[in-house]
């Protein structure tokens, strides 16, 4: 797939489209410009002395002034009230599994050897683990500690209750949230969707209100966390004065692959247990204690393309074992999806200087010299912190290269992969917790969360920090943050 | 003086124009039209009769004679006819070992028929769809079914796709709720595709737990796809306009939450267990929903009448409450027929339809669409209300200005309702086209009643037949 031409071509069109939309949407505002310009000119022409005599000749009495003032204030208030409501992230909690669920390399390898008869598979998984970028402290649910693992529905429900309820309890402790105050509930869990749904399970456990608006998203992959945030944001735009609880998790228990196909063994090695609960709100009084404000959510879906659609695919192997196969082209497809996402988010977040540079380089390529390389905007100017989905070492490497980031920018992602493994949709929240635990989050900082997932989707969310976050944060990193960052070698010899 | 006045006037005029424009565009986006919908009609080779169902049950060697009789009794009394559809793997004898591909094939058949159908009927291209919401209760592969849909029809890169799962038989209206809320937030008009189905392939229960076997007798294959839009340009072509949608979830009560649970039985086999507390949970959820719905859809006159009768009764009876024998008889009922012309009830089973009929005070004519849908298609879970709507349309019942109320129940326990106003006379028979003239049939009695009729003479088998 040609990268430069298609990329710049679609960007070209996007800019034209954006320009037209801006013109039409802000037509009345733009009309104001000539009016104000004319006024300013007129005032400049008159000079101060004349202005004073003009003012005196107005013969304004109290009634006039009061009426005008009232009208101005009234119109101003209505205008302010009619703007889209800001969506605040009040706080979030990440689940920290107990030490009994820990899976060091030795445990993982021993279990693999005992479960599998196939030597080649065992050696393959060893090699994957060596190069994975995971550390010795990642967690698997209790059912996976059995030999062989016990992927029953009961065990899956138990894991779901453990991770979700712990995360929500932690969030309630941190925010003082009352269950009766939750108006919107969005749960996403890709590979486990029982009946009644996980959202109904939460409603039952915490006795939430009967008129709650709940949604249970499923099957949407590792980028589903941001899809849930998008849905919660839309619901908060429609319902004033509301709280939204978003729960992102991935239930590992039912998804252990028992066969020997290599492309399906990868998830066994990489996916680990985790969950995050996030409280969003559009209540004005939450603005005081909220940590972040949601600025943009941009979603890109590459499902129309065959290769992208099949790159993360659940199917049965020849022996009938169900597993998720990851294709070798995953990196290239992730890069493509990211480029598409950037073309939409770039104009929204990049400073004018970068946009102009990009535009001129584009014009130059078209008119002057075709061999000029397309300009890759410097996103470091737009964001202070990056949270890249910890899908695997290769994904982080690829994005670091594509976005030209330094190792400090991807540190949160690498360390999350090392400490917690690939926790799917909740990994972005562990990364954010890392940045906060390191004391790097200052007021006014902008954060870019990028998630990738099956479909193939690339979703981005942009947050703005509203208050400097003090350490210790009482998050999942508190007991080990002093050890980080850790140097993760290319290959760990097992 | 003139300049200042002119300036103030200009600024004020600008501000007022801006606010007016905002208000108008918000109002334009606030309407939600049902452009069209299509119900899935599976191919004829998937039809299953009572006799065939009996054969499938007989194949299961784990079932003893009592279970066999119980199941046949359920089927014979279920109100389900001889033309419902089953997944292929069950008919081919592979109900114990459904494969992933079988389930995907069932979904693909549905996409090809209903989704392509609704796009063709309306002339909307897949690339024009801005939002797609898919709901399939108990099958959720990776990549999601909504991604499969996006892939199959080649939708745009910036399409907003949502995949709901696990939300039970009432999730069709949850999908509509999601679509409507997202439409309200977009600055431009949105074309939304709402796709609802249920996956029967992986969910045929092969064990011996009675509470789980009911699902096999009631749930059948089906699905529906609908196009919703908030573009006023489509008003002339739209079929109905959404007026109000109310959701009630009583999952906070433990027994309601445990009414329908997908779990393993004592032998480790998966199935959906329907508990005996289900009818009570349904009634509770229904009441909860109606309490919030009634003030929004009924005319003020009816509400006033109901409230005054309630107050009068309380005054007359004084501090003594729950006295049924005294004076006026049963408690005053609110008459929904003053605000609703057609009732689209979830055909969960004959007992459910009957219970709803009684509590709303409806006639046989009102519940005929639900009963006939149950007979012709079985309980197709979340998509069944679209079949009920289609029946009403095929029978030419829906005229401009009529008001339709959709009510569904589902696990959780939820009761969702949706109130529509018909915008033009409707006459499209849809999936009922080839058989609408045969409905209502002379008798709904199962033709195998004679053969299996001896079942009804047996007492004390499978207590409390809840459906």
UniProtKB/TrEMBL annotation, chain A:
Domain FAE: 79-367
Catalytic function, reaction form: a very-long-chain acyl-CoA + malonyl-CoA + H(+) = a very-long-chain 3-oxoacyl-CoA + CO2 + CoA
Presence of the UniProt keyword Disulfide bond in the record: no
EC nos: 2.3.1.-
Residues annotated as catalytic: 222, 301, 385, 389, 418, 422
A single cellular component GO annotation: membrane
Key word rRNA-binding present: no
Pathways per UniProt: Lipid metabolism; fatty acid biosynthesis
Keyword vocabulary terms for this entry: Acyltransferase, Membrane, Transferase, Transmembrane, Transmembrane helix
GO MF annotations in UniProt: fatty acid elongase activity
Swiss-Prot/TrEMBL GO biological process terms: fatty acid biosynthetic process
Entry-linked CDD domains: CHS_like (cd00831)
Top EC class for this record: transferase
Domain Beta-ketoacyl-[acyl-carrier-protein] synthase III C-terminal span(s) in chain numbering: 384-464
Compartments where located: Membrane
InterPro entries: 3-ktacl-CoA_syn, ACP_syn_III_C, FAE1_typ3_polyketide_synth, Thiolase-like
Residues that span the membrane, as ranges: 20-41, 62-82
Domain of life according to the entry: Eukaryota
Family, as annotated: Belongs to the thiolase-like superfamily. Chalcone/stilbene synthases family.
Name this polypeptide is given: 3-ketoacyl-CoA synthase
TrEMBL record, chain B:
A single MF term (Gene Ontology): acyltransferase activity, transferring groups other than amino-acyl groups
InterPro entries per record: 3-ktacl-CoA_syn, ACP_syn_III_C, FAE1_typ3_polyketide_synth, Thiolase-like
Keyword Signal attributed: yes
Residue ranges of domain FAE in the record: 25-315
Leader peptide range in chain numbering: 1-17
Biological pathway: Lipid metabolism; fatty acid biosynthesis
The family this protein is said to belong to: Belongs to the thiolase-like superfamily. Chalcone/stilbene synthases family.
Protein name (record): 3-ketoacyl-CoA synthase
Organism listed in the record: Miscanthus lutarioriparius
């Amino acid at each position: 797939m040609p990268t430069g031409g298609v990329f710049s071509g679609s960007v070209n069109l996007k800019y034209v489209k954006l320009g037209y939309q801006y013109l039409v949407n802000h037509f009345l505002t733009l009309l104001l410009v000539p009016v104000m310009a004319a006024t300013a000119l007129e005032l400049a022409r008159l000079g101060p002395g004349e202005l004073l005599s003009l003012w005196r000749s107005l013969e304004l009495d109290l009634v006039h002034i009061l009426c005008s003032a009232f009208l101005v204030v009234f119109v101003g208030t209505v205008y302010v009230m009619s703007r889209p409501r800001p969506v605040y992230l009040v706080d979030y909690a990440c689940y920290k599994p107990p030490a009994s669920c820990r899976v060091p390399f030795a445990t993982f390898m021993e279990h693999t050897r005992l479960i599998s008869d196939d030597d080649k598979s065992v050696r393959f998984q060893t090699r994957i683990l060596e190069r994975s970028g995971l550390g010795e402290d990642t967690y698997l649910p209790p059912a996976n500690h059995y030999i062989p693992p016990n992927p029953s529905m009961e065990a899956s429900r138990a894991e779901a209750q453990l991770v979700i309820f712990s995360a929500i309890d932690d969030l309630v402790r941190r925010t003082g949230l009352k269950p009766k105050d939750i108006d919107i509930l969005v749960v996403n869990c890709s590979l486990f969707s029982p009946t009644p749904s996980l959202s109904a399970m939460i409603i039952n456990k915490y006795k939430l209100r009967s008129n709650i608006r709940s949604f249970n998203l499923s099957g949407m992959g590792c980028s589903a966390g941001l899809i849930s945030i998008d849905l919660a944001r839309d619901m908060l735009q429609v319902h004033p004065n509301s709280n939204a609880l978003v729960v992102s998790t991935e239930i590992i228990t039912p998804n252990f692959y028992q066969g020997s196909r290599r492309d399906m063994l990868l998830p066994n090695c990489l996916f680990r247990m985790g969950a995050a609960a996030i409280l969003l709100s559009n209540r004005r009084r939450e603005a005081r204690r909220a940590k972040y404000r949601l600025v943009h959510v941009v979603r890109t879906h590459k499902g129309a393309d065959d290769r992208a659609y099949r790159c993360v695919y659940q199917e049965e192997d020849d022996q009938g074992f169900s597993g998720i196969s990851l294709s070798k082209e995953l990196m290239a497809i992730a890069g493509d999806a990211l480029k598409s996402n950037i073309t939409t988010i770039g104009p929204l977040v990049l400073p004018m200087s970068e946009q102009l540079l990009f535009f001129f380089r584009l014009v130059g390529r078209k008119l002057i010299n075709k061999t000029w390389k397309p300009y890759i905007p410097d996103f470091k100017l737009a964001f202070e912190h990056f949270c890249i989905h910890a899908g695997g070492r290769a994904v982080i490497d690829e994005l670091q290269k594509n976005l030209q980031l330094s190792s400090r920018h991807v540190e949160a992602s690498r360390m999350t992969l090392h400490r917690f493994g690939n926790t799917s949709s909740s990994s972005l929240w562990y990364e954010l917790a890392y940045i906060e635990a390191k004391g790097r989050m200052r007021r006014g900082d902008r954060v870019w969360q990028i998630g990738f997932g099956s479909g193939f989707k690339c979703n981005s969310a942009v947050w703005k920090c509203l208050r400097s976050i003090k350490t210790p944060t009482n998050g999942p990193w508190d007991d080990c943050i002093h050890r980080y960052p850790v140097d993760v070698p290319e290959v760990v010899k097992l | 003086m003139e300049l200042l006045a002119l300036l103030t006037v200009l600024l004020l005029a600008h501000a007022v124009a801006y606010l007016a424009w905002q208000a108008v565009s918000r109002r334009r986006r606030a309407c939600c039209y049902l452009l069209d919908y299509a119900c899935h009609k599976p191919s004829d080779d998937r039809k299953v009769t009572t006799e065939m169902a009996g054969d499938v049950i007989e194949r299961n060697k784990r079932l003893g004679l009592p279970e066999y009789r119980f199941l046949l009794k359920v089927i014979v009394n279920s109100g389900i006819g001889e033309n419902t559809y089953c997944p292929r793997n069950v008919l081919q004898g592979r109900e114990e070992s459904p494969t992933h591909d079988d389930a995907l094939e069932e979904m693909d058949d549905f996409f090809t028929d209903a989704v392509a159908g609704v796009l063709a009927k309306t002339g909307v291209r897949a690339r024009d769809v801005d939002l797609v919401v898919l709901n399939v209760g108990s099958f959720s592969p990776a990549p999601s079914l909504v991604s499969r849909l996006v892939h199959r029809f080649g939708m745009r890169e910036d399409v907003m796709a949502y995949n709901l799962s696990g939300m039970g038989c009432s999730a069709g209206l949850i999908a509509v709720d999601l679509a409507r809320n997202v439409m309200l937030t977009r600055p431009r008009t949105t074309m939304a595709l709402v796709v609802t189905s249920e996956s029967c392939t992986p969910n045929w229960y092969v064990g011996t737990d009675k509470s789980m076997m009911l699902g096999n007798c009631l749930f059948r294959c089906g699905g529906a796809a609908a196009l919703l839009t908030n573009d006023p340009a489509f008003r002339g072509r739209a079929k109905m306009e959404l007026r109000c949608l109310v959701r009630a979830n009583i999952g906070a009560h433990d027994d309601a939450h445990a009414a329908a649970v997908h779990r393993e039985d004592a032998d480790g086999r998966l199935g959906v267990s329907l508990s005996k507390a289900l009818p009570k949970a349904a009634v509770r959820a229904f009441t909860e929903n109606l309490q919030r719905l009634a003030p929004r859809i009924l005319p003020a006159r009816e509400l006033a009448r109901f409230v005054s009768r309630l107050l009068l009764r309380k005054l007359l009876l004084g501090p003594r409450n729950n006295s049924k024998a005294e004076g006026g008889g049963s408690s005053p009922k609110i008459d929904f027929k003053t605000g609703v012309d057609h009732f689209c009830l979830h055909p969960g089973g004959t007992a459910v339809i009957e219970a709803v009929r009684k509590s709303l005070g409806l006639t046989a004519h009102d519940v005929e669409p639900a009963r006939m849908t149950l007979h012709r298609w079985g309980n197709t879970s979340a998509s069944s209300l679209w079949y009920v709507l289609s029946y009403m349309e095929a029978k030419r019942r829906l005229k401009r200005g009529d008001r339709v109320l959709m009510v569904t129940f589902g696990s959780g326990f939820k009761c969702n309702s949706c109130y529509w106003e018909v915008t033009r006379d409707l006459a499209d028979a849809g999936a009922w086209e080839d058989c609408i003239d045969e409905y209502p049939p002379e008798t709904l009695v199962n033709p195998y009643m004679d053969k299996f009729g001896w079942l009804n003479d047996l007492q004390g088998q499978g207590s409390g037949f809840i459906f």
